[in-house]
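Students often ask why we bother encoding 3D structure as a string. The short answer is that it lets us treat folding as translation between two languages. Here is a chain of 345 residues written in the first language.
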Amino acid sequence: MKILAVGDSYMPPRYFQQAFASVEADHKVEYFQVEDKPFAPTSPSELRIKEYQGVPSELRGHMAGVEALVVQGAPVTDEVLEAGSQLRIVGCARGGPVNIDVEAVNARGLPLVNTPGKNAQAVADQTLAFLIMLARGLPRAQRFLEEGHQLKDNWEGAKFIGSDLRRHTLGLVGFGLIGHQVARRALPFGMNIVAYDPYMDIDPADGVRQVESLDELLSESDFVSLHARVTKDNVNMFDTATFAKMKPGSYFVNTARENLVDEDALDAALESGHLGGAALDIVRQSTEGGRHRLLRHRNVVMTPHVGGATHETLLQGAEMIADELHRFAAGKPLCYLVNREALGL
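And here it is in the second language, the structure alphabet:
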């Protein structure tokens, strides 16, 4: 089987090369990296994709004889698929294959696999880091030093006394792959953990108590960490009313999606002092540019959507695709098939 593995500036081909060592033993693999150059979509297929790098014509030139196309962020449109007359499977090494025209893939009856949960470990690590930073008041302490201040003596340091995580309650909104990994990390810190997820039955053996409503979780939690998927029904699920139900002085963490949070409401909850602080890995894009308004609060820490940005995450995504290619070549069922329903499976 001829395999084309396409890297980009975020995930260069070296990650595929490292993960595909066993694949190369039985198959021919070609690697290349798309260029980061502007591309103005015009066709219906091009307009259906987003969050991509490169241009379809660049991939088209490599598609002769390709039976398995693997990408991370390269654009896969009907133009690319038409050039792959021998194509049998498409793989996308990310959680959501938004850079792939799934409609065009389905029209050709091709299986499409992705890598759900590849970033769960990394995002869970960052969530724990956020919890510690908020509990210890590190955003405020860091700004104290950035502004050129120094402590005169140990007694003055009393202004920065924080808290341990132990004996505090962590509320997880969503208990999927990431929420589960956060719980596993938080338990050894001595935290009590409750979780709200209407789509799951949580095993008590996980050390987590499942609550029946979001309101119940909010009323009990000293830290609320958001790990839900975005749906049409939960946009701005954390709004003025939701933040008001959180315990006074509690902390809010979002490493999920920006659309789950009404930032005006979060800003107001921080301004009033109702919240003790917030840690955010993702926020809504501003057309104004410059420093994000929430950073004016001294108890806010923010990162630019880097929760899953680790070498290990990228390698794991490539390894998951490699495993799927082995299963496909052996005629075995695929584990991460995106378009199962479209293929009638």
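Translate back mentally: The mean pLDDT is 95. Keep this in mind for the problem set.
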